[in-house]
Amino acid sequence: MDSSFAIIQALCRSALSSSKEMVEHQVVRLIEYYKKQGMDKEAKSLEGILAKAHRSQPMESLNFVMSSLEGDELTRGTTVPVDKETATPILEILFQDDMEQDIPLFNDSIQVAVDAVINEWRNYDKLVKLNASPSRSCLIYGDPGTGKTMLAKWIAKSVGLPVVLAKLDGIISSFLGTSSRNIASLFRFANRYKCILLLDEFDALAKLRDDPQEIGEVKRIVNTLLQNLDARAEKGFTIGITNHEKLLDPAVWRRFDVQIDIPHPNIVVREKMLSKFISPLEYSHSELKFINWCMDDATGADLRKLSDWLKRMFVLEGSIRRNVLEQMKQFATMNTGRVSRRIVDLLNSDLTVLCNELSNNNYLQLKQKDIAALVEMSPSNLSKHISKRKNSTFASDSSVIG
Q1: pTM value?
Q2: Domains identified in the chain, total number
Q3: Are 250 and 280 in contact (CB under 8 A)?
Q4: Is the pLDDT of residue 16 over 80?
Q5: Co-location of 258 and 289 in the same domain
Q6: Are residues 44 and 96 in the same domain?
Q7: Domain coverage including residue 29
């Protein structure tokens, strides 16, 4: 089956859902697929169609939800509540221009889930007429650097609502009872306006109430939070974000209609991220694949750090760029928390071991001339290294059998 068929399926589903933005996203995916396959003529044709659609059809108003929700509209002049003890703001308001402009890159299963949530809010009026309601709350969790906050802001931008972002440094107070009062003020403010309430680092507010290390104040905070989440259930959309989902009180989980676990990007998404982040630096297709292989199980934040580092090296080293293998060796040495131990060991191993690993990797599918270029070795010498490894392995196996 042609690999593009999965994209065409998603494109058809998006078209039938009448979501222009979702259709455009799938068309972009199809363009990227054709470029990857070397089908430049087909890719340019689709790019032309997309550009013409942007010129001839005005963008759907991002404020389509605003008229449906009850509440006042937020402006940049809206006064925000503060902690009475310290005068520190307990929230920040983010408007459309403050949020993510590009569609975040995620694994297909995550993208489908996110599109479903957005589509519910795009059809808010239709759902209300049927005495139904879109999902009112979403918990996004996963490892640091996987793009949870970026995703939350993209959802807000896609449904056309400003974000009320809770500021924990203003909410959490050392004064007894003040934290609970600040939470109540936060929700009261969010319920008054048409907005998405974003609770980042949510575990700081929603810790387990039976934790023996915590004092009674934590129980009061969680109880206040639960009461306010219940009260907001029919008034707006709330997103919670956490890196530590296991710390959340079980009662908190039940308050969220949608719960999305954001995994590390798979190898296909990592390749797209690298192409996007590394630009305008130019690397060959085999070099990008090698870099992707080196960053096995990396997060989006790790890939951005790598891309920024490569750009710094480009500036500092001038026009003479080091071999990509040497670059990745140095990066791995300086970023041991971002590169797996297995990859670090392989990068620093004997070239015979590394070349055979690259030669046999199903994802890379590199030709010997590509591997030779990566390790700065002639193809004939590379063949000797690979043969040497195979012969050594065969001899070892024979001795065991003997």
Answers
A1: 0.76
A2: 3
A3: no
A4: no
A5: no
A6: no
A7: 4-56
Q: What is the DSSP string of 128-187?
A: HHTT-----EEEEEESTTSSHHHHHHHHHHHHT--EEEE-HHHH--SSTTHHHHHHHHHH
Percent of the chain residues past pLDDT 70, beyond the cut: 80
- When pLDDT is cut at 50, 70 and 90, the band that residue 399 belongs to is very low
Residues 358 and 243 grouped into a single domain? no
Q: Which helix (H) or strand (E) holds 261?
A: strand 258-262
Residue 108 tokens, joined? 């297909």
* Domain-terminating residue out of 262, 288, 316: 262
* Best CA proximity match to 326, nearest among 307, 348, 308: 348
pLDDT tens for 108-120 read: 899 899 999 999 8
At residue 400, the pLDDT reads: 39
Q: What is the mean pLDDT of the chain?
A: 81
Token reading at 261: 């676990």
Instruction: Find how far residue 44's CA is from the centre of its chain.
Output: 28
Position 63 in a domain: no
Task: Kindly state whether residue 73 falls inside one of the protein's structural domains.
Answer: no
Which residue type occupies 197?
Answer: L
